[in-house]
Design goal:
The chain starts with a helix and ends with a strand. The longest helix has about 30 residues, at about 1-35. It is about 20% helix and about 40% strand. With about 140 residues, the chain is α+β, with helices and mostly antiparallel strands. The chain is rod-shaped and about 100 Å long.
Amino acid sequence: MSRSLKTRVSWSAVTIVVFAILATILTVVMLSTAPADAIPASPTDESKVPHYFGPYPNWANSPLTVADASVAITGDGFGATAAATVGGNGAITGISVINPGSGYSYANVVITGSGIGASANAVVSPTSVVTSIAITANGAVTGTR
């Protein structure tokens, strides 16, 4: 019985060696025939490996929008600042007062950016500060991004 067991073990060892040699030959052949442009030059090769948060935004899949509208508050006071929130279609969806400033009896809102048609009015309190900004026209984006 020990003789048949010895024969089985030697056949198993031969099988493993043959399989390893065939796998190595197959790997070498496959790697040598792969087209060079299909393999990235480095782990961060931008032309071969797309990524979500790279220098080129993925607008098709991204739920995020770029706040590309600036808000300036002018008038007879000083120091008032505000920030615009821009929606997916480029329209202004909200304007928040960041700093109410002081010394205002009137204030104008100037919105600049890549869109057109947005306008808003500033609300000045009896204490001469800008308390809020009311959007009168949301505007829209011009052209494509």
